[in-house]
Amino acid sequence: MPDRAGQETVKVWDPLIRMGHWILVVAFATAYLTEGEPEWLHVRAGYAIAAVVALRILWGLVGPRRARFSDFVTGPARVLRYLRALVAGRAARHLGHSPAGGAMTLALLAALAVTAVSGMVTLATEDGRGPLAGIVAQAGDEHGREHEGEADWEEIHETAANLTVVLIVLHLGGVALASHAHGENLSRAMVTGRKRA
Ligand code: HEM
Ligand code: HEM
Questions:
Q1: C-alpha separations of 43 from 36, 40, 109, 118 in Å
Q2: How many CB atoms lie within 10 A of CB 171?
Q3: Which residue, among 136, 99, 103, 118, has the nearest Cα to 49 in the 3D structure?
Q4: Is the CB of 38 under 6 A from ligand 1?
Q5: Which CATH class is domain 9-141+149-196?
């Protein structure tokens, strides 16, 4: 199908990837900016992220070609070679994720999973609520007093959220750099699903 400039384009990102991506953007901004309060909103945004990540991992195994991990997961040597070429302005164009894009996809999914799960552990250990209540023990004694050496899950959760933000900043930088290098708007491709043939 030709685009507005008359260029032939091909379908790359399926609807599940695209919808999942933009749900992640909205839900992450919501969860991060609410910082836990109001809790109903924070926790629901977090569950939305957990659901998208779980579905995306499944899709990486059984989804269409460009969605599959086997299409874009490569070793660190290829990632570094791609990044060096990108900075030097001679990186090869990839229709699916580039080696660096693939590595960032894995890093983001892992960071989002750790953040969401540590949030659920925080809720279970502090208040005995949420999907992990009954699986992980509530912290403190019957009076709610905390004991020395007990893991501070809220602290772990906050650190995971901040590390995810660092990855997102690198992600946006990578998208901008690769879009410039290949003369195409990769963000628009994440909306339309199509790239230049
Ligand atoms: C995955 C996206 C999420 C992000 C980016 C995120 C981010 C944050 C941040 C920045 C804080 C403030 C930490 C602090 O100031 O100490 C926080 C607190 C908290 N989060 Fe999350 N969170 C996410 C998901 C979740 C989920 C899925 C749950 C539970 C089901 C959850 C439960 C909590 C709880 C209980 C607190 C402590 C609230 C308080 O005591 O004030 N979060 N979160
Ligand atoms: C407005 C800000 C954002 C823009 C413009 C954007 C753009 C993009 C683009 C263009 C890609 C495809 C990269 C490629 O061609 O290899 C992508 C992939 C991805 N982005 Fe973003 N992104 C944004 C924010 C975020 C945020 C906040 C998250 C996480 C919370 C995120 C998570 C991901 C993930 C997991 C992928 C891999 C997609 C997949 O294969 O399922 N992005 N993003």
A1: 7, 5, 18, 12
A2: 16
A3: 118
A4: no
A5: mainly alpha
CA 123 remoteness from chain centre: 22
CA distance 14 to 96: 11
Query: Whole-angstrom Cα distance, residue 113 to residue 160?
Result: 9
DSSP at 2: B
The helix/strand/coil state of 43 is helix
Q: Per-block average pLDDT, block size 10, for the chain (197 residues)?
A: 80 98 98 96 98 98 98 97 94 96 98 98 93 88 65 94 98 96 96 96
66 CA distance to ligand 1 middle (Å): 32
Q: What is the domain partition of the chain in residue ranges? A: 9-141+149-196
pLDDT of 144: 62
Ligand 2 centroid to Cα of residue 130, in Å, is 28
- Bridge partner residues of 11 (DSSP): 194
CA distance linking residue 22 with residue 90, whole number of Å: 30
CB under 8 A, 24+ apart: contacts of 131-136: none
HSE, CB side, 13 Å, CA atoms: give it for residue 118: 19
The residue whose two tokens read 């899709």 is 59
Residue 139: the pLDDT is 81
Task: Measure 144 CA to ligand 1 centroid, in angstroms.
Answer: 20
User: What pLDDT score does 141 carry?
Assistant: 66
